[in-house]
Amino acid sequence: MTLFESESQYREKATIWRIFSLLPLYAALAGGRVWRWFAINIPMDLGTGGSFTSDIDIIARLHDFPPSQEWLYRTWEVKVSLLCKDGSARSLKIGKTARTVTQLKAYREFGSPDVSLLDIYLCQAGFMAQNTFPPSVLTETISTKLAELSRERFGYQLLPFEHGKDGDRDVGLLAIPSEQNPLQTTFNVLPAVTTGPQQPFSRLVDKLDEFFERIEGQSGKSFLQIVFCRECRRLQSIRMKDESKCPTCQSNLVIQS
């Protein structure tokens, strides 16, 4: 089964997994900065002792280049929609903007210093050959979100990509590079207004930092991702390009709920 055809209950996590399997897609999230690590689907209450029970979809530890002593942290809430090759759209979640803003506010209340919405558009094979991005069908939903996110000082990014199809398998990658930077595959619609990290977010990223620094071997370490296994209740470091099972319990991390 292709990613575009994946089951809706697993689509968001499967899509995040696919992004971090492809360097041209996830490197763009660093926004030109150097990343130390990315962490995926991390529970807010992991080692924080707090009352927050949601997950953070993506956390990044970044610094400017040349390297400075100050590390920066960014977080993203991810939403996934489908763009069909005829230019129509599915799963746009029109009318759910208020709920999305509530989720982003939870990130901020948790202490995240930089909070953005990442709208991912899975394009059906053939979409990009027949359509421009964004297609007119997205005009209303993008403008609505932009107004709400700007009012609340959240960031907003769009990431469209497409695979070719070979039977029931995905092949290749089509993404839309920025004219200014061929390595930039996200549309940075709105920057987040940043603050300093607060508790309990600071305790969470300290725990992630400590875990990452304990990983043996430095070569290629920044291409590992930190994930959390809900079956064995442990942080794991894996290369999402090659792995989808927990190294400890062999549970499928993509379909965990």
Defining key terms:
10-stranded mixed sheet, single chain, alpha/beta, 6 helices, about 260 residues, globular
Question: How would you characterize the overall build of this protein?
Answer:
The protein is of the alpha/beta class and about 260 residues long. It has one domain. Helices cover about 25% and strands about 30% of the residues. The chain is built from 6 helices and 10 strands, in the order ααββββαβααβββαββ. Strands 1, 2, 3, 4, 5, 6, 7, 8, 9 and 10 form a 10-stranded mixed sheet that branches. β9 and β10 form a beta hairpin. It is globular and about 50 Å long. The relative contact order is 0.17.
How is this structure best summarized?
The chain is α/β, with parallel strands linked by helices and 257 residues long. It contains 6 helices and 10 strands; from the N terminus they run ααββββαβααβββαββ.
